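Sanity check

After download, print the first record. It should look like this:
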Amino acid sequence: MNEQLAKQILKIFANNPFDAFNHKQISSRIGAGSKADRQEVIRTMQELAEQKQLVEDDHKGKYKINPKNINDDLVPHNYVVGTIDMKQGGKAYVIPDEEGREDIQIAPNNTHHALHGDTVRVLMFPQRKMHKPEGQVVEIMKRARTRFVGVLQKQERFAFMVSDSRTMPVDIFIHADDMGGAENGEKVLVEMTEWPERMNNPVGKVVKRLGKPGDNNVEMQSILAEYDFPLEFPKEAEDEAKKIRKPTKKEMASRRDFRDVLTFTIDPADAKDFDDALSYRVLENGRVEVGVHIADVSYYVKPGSAIDREAYERGTSVYLVDRTIPMLPEKLCNDVCSLRQDEEKLCFSVVMEMDNKGKVHKTWMGKTVIRSNRRMAYEEAQAVIDSGVSDGTDVADAILALHGIATVLRAARYKSGAINFESQEVKFILDENAHPTGVYIKESKEANWLIEEFMLLANKTVAEYIGKPKTQNSKLKTQNSAKTFVYRVHDEPNPEKLNTFVEFVAKLGFSMRVGSRKALAESYNNLFRDIAGRGEENMIDTIAIRTMSKAYYSTENIGHYGLAFPYYTHFTSPIRRYPDLMVHRLLERYLEGGASVSADEYEDYCRHCSVMERKAADAERTSVKYKQAEFLADKLGQVFPALISGVSKWGIYAEIEGNKCEGMIPIGSLKDDYYMLDEDNYQVIGRRHGRTYKLGYPVNIRVKRVDMLKKQIDFELVEEEPSRKPTKPNKPIKPNKPNKSSTSGKPGKTRRRKK
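Expected structure tokens:
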């Protein structure tokens, strides 16, 4: 083969990946005028087709390039690989794998059968002035998923599955023989089997009938299936769990014994799986010994077992509004491993000798046996802290002492540059049929922070033991340097996204300092405190989180930016997180002097666990949206006070005060004027009268329509003002006030931390 000619031909095809050419067209483009030159072109194209570098088109004699053979040697920098983010209407963006590269806009007719989350190769278009980067998908390198949930719409000889997901732009075609007995209007789980090039819709088959839409159990199962979480444990895993027995006296005797040391758990009142406990005792030298005891799941779940394989596939427990989908079979998570009161349990522990200023003087890590003296709810522990006076019990004394240390630890973290990234947690009051009768915002208080600080300290201590160079670590007698380990990492924010965010909040009357890491952290914390309870809160929170990098698991330690920890891992929740189970196994291995494991192998495990964590978070958010829609479904026509939480060309978004149920007021429903979007200032303005609806303004809304299947809520604006005092009107406030949370450990905003 004429290699130079072949490369010239391939370059033409690569620059036109959707076009088919015959030998005459190629000869014309490269200037092959003589008969001999044209014959050489024909031979070369035939050889390229035999090598699968070109593929024959529907028209005989015409060829297209095989997208798998496109590379930078052919068209340098014209192609980008990334993940596609589908929007409603078929428009999409591709988020490049290459760090720091701007997102690429993809028109609906240029997505080339790609679906949300797919890994794709994009042909870049020439950059137009004042436009974002644009391109078209030329290859689907990896499908993110092939199973989808939706409602079956049957015709005489075929059916379509209409997906529940807003990011699924097409319906799936199903042949009559592939419906699996499903009835018209049923919720089904469908496997996409193929998508022929010239078909507008993919082809699939029903793999599971879920039931009638609107049934709570069906909807919750649909959410789990939508995010690829299994609905039950395999029989092999359940059989293994049944055979698990309590540990022998010999096993307990081989461990450090804490059964006579004051130990207790603090968890939500409705918790069943207790995977962490604290022990406390005063030492003769005046210091205190604090033990962080974590359920020793690794003792029961061995690598390669059926339970282990299933736990790895799930990656995490999933917490929907009305149920928990555990990572481990119930016998393990709620019985054998759970640190229940007055029961002897096996643990993996981090035991620290500390002073009342939070300084750790000595640390020990290893296998233990404990007996919890008291199972406390957060509310009980908070009552002790609120009183500030012990009731004379050992547990109350311990809680007050540990609260004092935790307050110091928390203040030190914020002083070191930790960022208070948390989100408000919506909770529901459910009746016996799981129907929501009330919605409220869960408040995090000092009792929550007490547990949080000691869990953070244990996680940091374990990560430092493995990752920190020996010369810098005086707390521990031994040090396992250069060992492959599982870290929880969080990168610093992308500078371009950060600058955009700073400009955004400046238009809302807030300023941020980005000159140093510490100044930025203080600015973030001040901002989160100042927007608490305001209409802008939800949007600013959302954009702030998108500005920051996402935390993930990796064997390559880059530190945790948000926590301001150079070394950090997840050690404290092996009942509900698979990475913690990996950390336990690795720590035990290295404490016993074992050799390092394969970094490549464990990096693959980390990537999988990070993906499953994101899926679980998406499933949990979806279940909240469904319950919010269900809560308002029987309140059509009712009026509520709300705050404007967002604006778009389609309408105004408003969030009901007190329960965070968000809906849209369509622009077309505002009849008093013709309203236009002022995107730069986050408001809509009436063209004739100049009336303005701006982010954060208090309004009154009426619930107009609720679509539970799509989880969408529509409001209409109520002009008559009911008697109410607007909540925190949107007026400028003095930015960057001293952040009390960085010194007192009491941030002014209720958030759930995502570390």
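If your output differs, re-run the checksum step. Summary of this record's structure: DSSP finds 18 helices and 35 strands in the chain.
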